[in-house]
Protein backbone atom coordinates (compact mmCIF):
# COMPACT_ATOMS: atom_id res chain seq x y z
CA UNK A 1 0.00 0.00 0.00
CA UNK A 2 1.63 3.23 -1.05
CA UNK A 3 -0.96 5.61 0.37
CA UNK A 4 -3.25 5.88 3.37
CA UNK A 5 -6.54 7.62 4.06
CA UNK A 6 -6.48 9.32 7.45
CA UNK A 7 -9.26 10.23 9.82
CA UNK A 8 -8.75 12.70 12.67
CA UNK A 9 -7.49 10.05 15.13
CA UNK A 10 -4.58 9.28 12.78
CA UNK A 11 -3.46 12.91 12.95
CA UNK A 12 -3.79 13.03 16.74
CA UNK A 13 -1.65 9.86 16.92
CA UNK A 14 0.98 11.49 14.69
CA UNK A 15 0.74 9.01 11.80
CA UNK A 16 1.47 11.41 8.93
CA UNK A 17 4.37 13.01 10.81
CA UNK A 18 6.31 9.74 11.17
CA UNK A 19 5.42 8.03 7.91
CA UNK A 20 6.89 8.35 4.44
CA UNK A 21 3.67 7.11 2.81
CA UNK A 22 1.48 9.54 0.93
CA UNK A 23 -1.60 10.40 2.98
CA UNK A 24 -5.04 11.56 1.95
CA UNK A 25 -7.79 13.15 3.95
CA UNK A 26 -10.85 15.27 3.25
CA UNK A 27 -11.34 18.99 3.81
CA UNK A 28 -13.86 18.19 6.57
CA UNK A 29 -11.21 16.26 8.51
CA UNK A 30 -8.53 18.84 7.72
CA UNK A 31 -10.71 21.61 9.20
CA UNK A 32 -11.12 19.50 12.33
CA UNK A 33 -7.37 18.89 12.82
CA UNK A 34 -5.64 21.93 11.34
CA UNK A 35 -4.70 23.23 14.81
CA UNK A 36 -2.36 20.25 15.39
CA UNK A 37 1.31 21.25 15.61
CA UNK A 38 0.35 24.69 14.36
CA UNK A 39 3.39 26.26 16.04
CA UNK A 40 5.68 24.12 13.87
CA UNK A 41 3.45 24.33 10.77
CA UNK A 42 3.80 20.55 10.44
CA UNK A 43 0.60 20.19 8.43
CA UNK A 44 1.71 22.99 6.11
CA UNK A 45 4.98 21.15 5.51
CA UNK A 46 3.14 17.92 4.72
CA UNK A 47 0.94 19.78 2.23
CA UNK A 48 3.89 21.61 0.63
CA UNK A 49 5.87 18.40 0.18
CA UNK A 50 2.78 16.71 -1.25
CA UNK A 51 2.86 13.97 1.40
CA UNK A 52 -0.60 15.06 2.55
CA UNK A 53 -3.28 15.52 -0.08
CA UNK A 54 -6.76 16.84 0.54
CA UNK A 55 -9.30 15.20 -1.70
CA UNK A 56 -13.07 15.26 -1.75
CA UNK A 57 -14.97 12.04 -2.41
CA UNK A 58 -17.49 12.14 -5.23
CA UNK A 59 -21.22 12.20 -4.51
CA UNK A 60 -21.70 8.55 -5.51
CA UNK A 61 -19.10 7.44 -2.95
CA UNK A 62 -20.73 9.60 -0.28
CA UNK A 63 -24.13 8.05 -1.07
CA UNK A 64 -22.61 4.56 -0.89
CA UNK A 65 -20.96 5.36 2.47
CA UNK A 66 -24.24 6.68 3.89
CA UNK A 67 -26.20 3.68 2.60
CA UNK A 68 -23.68 1.20 3.99
CA UNK A 69 -23.56 2.96 7.37
CA UNK A 70 -27.36 2.84 7.54
CA UNK A 71 -27.31 -0.85 6.56
CA UNK A 72 -24.91 -1.65 9.42
CA UNK A 73 -26.72 0.61 11.89
CA UNK A 74 -23.64 2.77 12.45
CA UNK A 75 -25.00 5.91 10.76
CA UNK A 76 -26.14 7.69 13.98
CA UNK A 77 -22.62 7.31 15.44
CA UNK A 78 -20.84 8.79 12.40
CA UNK A 79 -20.03 12.45 11.78
CA UNK A 80 -19.86 14.09 8.35
CA UNK A 81 -16.08 13.79 8.64
CA UNK A 82 -16.37 10.03 9.26
CA UNK A 83 -18.68 9.57 6.27
CA UNK A 84 -16.24 11.53 4.09
CA UNK A 85 -13.37 9.21 5.09
CA UNK A 86 -15.41 6.07 4.36
CA UNK A 87 -16.47 7.58 1.02
CA UNK A 88 -12.85 8.37 0.13
CA UNK A 89 -11.95 4.77 1.02
CA UNK A 90 -14.68 3.49 -1.31
CA UNK A 91 -13.53 5.76 -4.12
CA UNK A 92 -9.77 5.24 -3.82
CA UNK A 93 -9.72 1.71 -2.38
CA UNK A 94 -6.95 2.78 -0.02
CA UNK A 95 -6.09 1.69 3.48
CA UNK A 96 -8.10 3.68 6.03
CA UNK A 97 -6.24 4.55 9.24
CA UNK A 98 -8.69 5.01 12.12
CA UNK A 99 -9.44 3.98 15.69
CA UNK A 100 -13.14 4.76 15.28
CA UNK A 101 -15.18 1.58 15.77
CA UNK A 102 -18.13 2.75 13.65
CA UNK A 103 -15.83 3.70 10.74
CA UNK A 104 -14.09 0.32 11.10
CA UNK A 105 -17.33 -1.65 11.11
CA UNK A 106 -18.71 0.08 8.02
CA UNK A 107 -15.36 -0.16 6.20
CA UNK A 108 -14.96 -3.86 6.98
CA UNK A 109 -18.54 -4.55 5.90
CA UNK A 110 -17.62 -2.90 2.59
CA UNK A 111 -14.49 -5.04 2.27
CA UNK A 112 -12.16 -2.05 2.72
CA UNK A 113 -8.80 -2.36 4.45
CA UNK A 114 -8.67 -0.59 7.80
CA UNK A 115 -5.80 -0.29 10.23
CA UNK A 116 -6.13 0.84 13.84
CA UNK A 117 -3.52 3.06 15.46
CA UNK A 118 -3.72 3.04 19.24
CA UNK A 119 -6.25 0.24 19.76
CA UNK A 120 -6.45 -3.40 18.72
CA UNK A 121 -9.24 -2.47 16.34
CA UNK A 122 -12.54 -4.24 16.12
CA UNK A 123 -12.71 -7.98 16.60
CA UNK A 124 -16.25 -8.49 15.35
CA UNK A 125 -17.88 -7.12 12.23
CA UNK A 126 -21.62 -7.06 11.76
CA UNK A 127 -24.81 -5.08 11.80
CA UNK A 128 -26.35 -3.30 14.75
CA UNK A 129 -29.89 -4.06 15.82
CA UNK A 130 -31.98 -2.17 18.35
CA UNK A 131 -33.79 -4.45 20.77
CA UNK A 132 -36.17 -4.09 23.65
CA UNK A 133 -35.01 -5.83 26.82
CA UNK A 134 -38.58 -5.61 28.13
CA UNK A 135 -40.66 -7.34 25.46
CA UNK A 136 -37.68 -8.84 23.58
CA UNK A 137 -38.51 -7.39 20.18
CA UNK A 138 -36.09 -6.10 17.55
CA UNK A 139 -36.39 -2.70 15.90
CA UNK A 140 -34.50 -1.01 13.07
CA UNK A 141 -34.24 2.40 14.75
CA UNK A 142 -35.41 4.40 17.70
CA UNK A 143 -34.61 4.97 21.32
CA UNK A 144 -37.83 3.67 22.86
CA UNK A 145 -39.82 0.49 22.20
CA UNK A 146 -43.00 1.39 20.30
CA UNK A 147 -44.75 -1.59 21.91
CA UNK A 148 -43.98 -1.20 25.61
CA UNK A 149 -42.05 2.09 25.98
CA UNK A 150 -38.85 0.52 27.38
CA UNK A 151 -35.60 2.24 26.31
CA UNK A 152 -34.04 0.30 23.44
CA UNK A 153 -30.53 -1.13 23.60
CA UNK A 154 -28.15 -1.91 20.74
CA UNK A 155 -26.30 -5.13 20.03
CA UNK A 156 -24.04 -6.23 17.22
CA UNK A 157 -25.22 -9.15 15.12
CA UNK A 158 -21.88 -10.64 14.17
CA UNK A 159 -21.16 -11.80 10.65
CA UNK A 160 -20.29 -15.46 10.41
CA UNK A 161 -17.06 -15.84 8.45
What amount of the residues lies in strands?
Answer: 15-25%
Number of helices: 6
CATH superfamily of the largest domain: 5'-nuclease
List the strand order in the largest sheet.
3-2-1-4-5
CATH fold assignment of the largest domain: Rossmann fold
What series of H and E elements makes up the topology?
EHEHHEHHEHEEEE
CATH architecture classification name of the largest domain = 3-Layer(aba) Sandwich
Number of domains: 2
Share of residues in helices: 25-40%
The CATH class label of the largest domain is Alpha Beta
For the terminal residues, how far apart are their CA atoms?
Answer: 25 Å
Description:
The chain is an alpha/beta fold and 161 residues long. It folds into two domains: 3-115, 5'-nuclease (Rossmann fold, 3-Layer(aba) Sandwich); 126-158. The chain has helices at residues 8-12, 27-33, 42-48, 59-72, 80-92, 101-109, and strands at residues 3-6, 22-25, 52-54, 95-97, 114-115, 126-131, 138-139, 153-158. The strands form two sheets. It has a five-stranded parallel β-sheet. Strand 4 (95-97), helix 6 and strand 5 (114-115) form a beta-alpha-beta unit. Helix 4 (59-72) crosses helix 6. Residues 5-91 form the Ribonuclease PIN domain. This is Endoribonuclease Nob1. GO terms for molecular function: hydrolase activity; metal ion binding; RNA endonuclease activity. Belongs to the NOB1 family. Toxic component of a type II toxin-antitoxin (TA) system. Processes pre-16S-rRNA at its 3' end (the D-site) to yield the mature 3' end.
Amino acid sequence: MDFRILDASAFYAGVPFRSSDDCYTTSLVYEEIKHIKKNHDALGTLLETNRLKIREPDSESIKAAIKSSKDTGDFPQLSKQDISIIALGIEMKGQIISDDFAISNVAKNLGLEIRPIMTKGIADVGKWVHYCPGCRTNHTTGTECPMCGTPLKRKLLKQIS
